[in-house]
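Subject — a protein and its fold
Encoding — discrete vocabulary of local shapes:
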Amino acid sequence: MPAVAMHKFLGVMLDQELCWKEHCQYVLQKGMKWVMQYQRLTKTSEGVSAKFMRWFFILVIIPRMMYVTDLFLMPGSRISKGTKGFISKLAKIQRQETLHITGALRSVPTDVIDACTDMIPFHFLVERLMHRATTRLVTLPLSHPLVKHIAPDAVKILQKVWT
């Protein structure tokens, strides 16, 4: 059986060293593909209304883009240096989406566009997703096989989240 440098398993790009660089590139490509498709739907003269496009972004695009990000995104971590850069690249995708929703010019600040479309800033979205994943792991039943690996750190995780 030949060795491969990278393999896609359950939507996650895995390489031999378990580095997430290839998967990050895959997520960015997927996000940009959605931006192009999204642009077709949001034409100002005959496109879908902004309300529905916002819901489409929240309910379809974000979950598809952020699938398994709790594995490799560590927003406040010193261990993962590339995470901040990757989060900022993903934030640019959200900015493009909100520009398409509002029909605004590129010179409009991101905070203003996020406020007009009632979107939370992307770094807060990432923190919310990480908080949700942490809460799910910490509240697993005692019979779950992951509990013995999570239980020693559960108190530390909860203290970080709640402070």
